[in-house]
Amino acid sequence: MPLRLFNTLSGKIEEFRPLVDNEVRMYACGPTVYDYGHIGNFRTFVAVDILRRYLRQSGHKLHHVMNITDVDDKIIRNAAQAGVNVHQYTAKYQKAFLEDAAALHIEEPQITRATEHIAQMAEFIARLVEKGLAYKTEDGSYYFRIAKFPGYGKLSKRDFAGMENGARVDVDEYEKDNARDFALWKAPKSGEASWESVIGPGRPGWHIECSVMSMQELGESFDLHAGGEDLIFPHHENEIAQSESLTGKQFAHFWFHARFLLVEGEKMSKSAGNFFTLRDLVLKGHKPSSIRYLLASVPYRHQLNFTFEGLQQAAASVERLRNFRLRLSGNFPDGSSLAMTSLAEQTSKRLRESLDDDLNTAQAQAAIFDMVRAANAAIDEGEIKKDDVPPLLAALDQFDEIFAVLNDDDAEKMQYIAEWANSDGREKDISPALRDIISSAALSDDQVNQRIEQMKAARAAKKYAESDAIRAELTAAAIIIEQTKEGVRWRRK
RNA sequence: GGCGCGGUACCCAAGUGGUAAGGGAGAGGUCUGCAAAACCUUUAUACGUGAGUUCGAUUCUCACCCGCGCCUCCA
Q1: Lower Cβ count inside 10 Å, N or C end of chain A?
Q2: ipTM score for this prediction
């Protein structure tokens, strides 16, 4: 069964098929780098990452482009306040964003930056003006004339017919022909960043960068355009207007939007005190894998209630999956069992069906846990054979190619953020929990294995006091020991 | 006000016109030198409230209550 996705443009769930062969060209709106990324941002980026990963797993080739908006009003304002130029100001946050995304195992798409495409944007605007689709105002700004694009409102399902200059005309923008006309290019203001261009000095408006960069990289028509739900209007609506009126072709065919999340049941906001960057959470001791798992556990079109209790539950879920994989590395008798082979097959099928169904990640999780429980029970009963392990691992891998939480590099990623906190004046925010997790990275695998050999020897000699002492020592170093029938296993806290 | 989404057990959360996935937490048990892990049993006469359609609704319709989103650059 093919992938079915909700398309904001049609308002329906549709079968997703690329325009050309098996190659998907997708563009995702990335961050505006004026601050550290918060978990709301990352909800969207995790959703897009899951889409990206699943498209690939489904056999598609992928050309995935994401922009970084490194110039806008807020950046200009903040940079001015900080007394640095725009590039200096954004460099820090760009770097942080990419690090945070990597901590969450978000695969890095091809990245394009607004400030590297100023000339192309100006040319694009010049072409719009030539066609009478845009106009220049007295101060040197340029606006798009929405009256020239009859399809305006088709994405956000708004009817702008008859909406002439209404009551909400912005007094600062009296020069516009219509209140809805949006800025393509803003004339320079004194002391603000501005660029010379074929259409005069100034800086680009917000929407133009995505039209220019997406078409440059992906062509005038491409498969899929993604972003947070807030971008539907006006950002994506405006991209469609300026792009399609210029090329006469359909811009993106599929529009994918992730819903906003709630934090502790309320809209996240700084004033409500429930505003968290990824780094805030890591400093409190929450693992990136727990955060990713929680963000991924609610299908992208549903409102996700992000809670600290949920974060702990997610951590427990991830741990259970990791324990299971560890358990499969034990020794089992030769042979294979029909039950396990078919369990793995069924699970693989359920995973595909769940994700084909508009990326139903909650159902995919249910499928993998059903398998884990059944396989664990089989291990307890001694019914698992050596040849059952590869198919079970394959199903687990199939799951993890999408969810990406099984490989434990949490301590490493968290250490990175702790180092940042130390150098950024936030060392006081490093929680004991974070210190504890990081400390588990202090011992190397070899060192741990060596101590475990000593522990095993003591145990074999029934010197329990000595064995327990070594275990306690490792526990104190945030290494968790499990002594089982299949041998001694260990993992980092 | 306009348009749209949602309200499922202690928490998170799938789902279906025929009587409720999964995870976490709690309780009891099995295993075990102890611990950990794992497994088993158990926790919704019930899916916001009221009415309607139907042989039958949590699932469809309507009303109401509550939460949330967009409607000038917040993912």
Answers
A1: N
A2: 0.95
List chain B nucleotides near protein: any atom < 7 Å from a Cβ: 3-6, 11-15, 21-25, 33-40, 67-75
Verify if strand B has an atom below 7 Å from the CB of A71: no
Taking the CA of residue A65 and the C1' sugar atom of nucleotide B60, their distance in angstroms comes to: 42
A43 CB contact with strand B at below 7 Å: yes
Strand B lies under 7 A from the Cβ of residue A391? no
* d(CA A71, C1' B50) / Å: 53
Per-residue pLDDT of chain A (493 residues), as tens digits, is 799 999 999 988 999 999 999 999 999 999 999 999 999 999 999 999 999 999 999 999 999 999 999 999 899 999 999 999 999 999 999 999 999 999 999 999 999 999 999 999 999 999 999 999 999 998 999 999 998 999 999 999 888 765 444 444 444 445 688 888 999 999 998 888 899 999 999 999 999 999 999 999 999 999 999 999 999 999 999 999 999 999 999 999 999 999 999 998 888 888 788 899 999 999 999 999 999 999 999 999 999 999 999 999 999 999 999 999 999 988 899 999 999 999 999 999 999 999 999 999 999 999 999 999 999 999 999 999 999 999 999 999 999 999 999 999 999 999 999 999 999 999 999 999 999 898 888 888 899 999 999 999 898 888 999 999 999 888 888 888 888 877 788 988 8
Burial label for A69, CB within 10 Å (0-12, 13-18, 19+), is buried
3-state secondary structure A30-88: CCECCCCCEHHHHHHHHHHHHHHHHHHHCCCEEEEEEEEECCCHHHHHHHHHHCCCHHH
User: Could you give the domains of chain A?
Assistant: 4-258 (3.40.50.620), 263-403 (1.10.730.10), 410-492 (no CATH)
A19 CB below 7 A from strand B atoms: no
Is nucleic acid strand B under 7 Å from A310's C-beta? Answer: yes
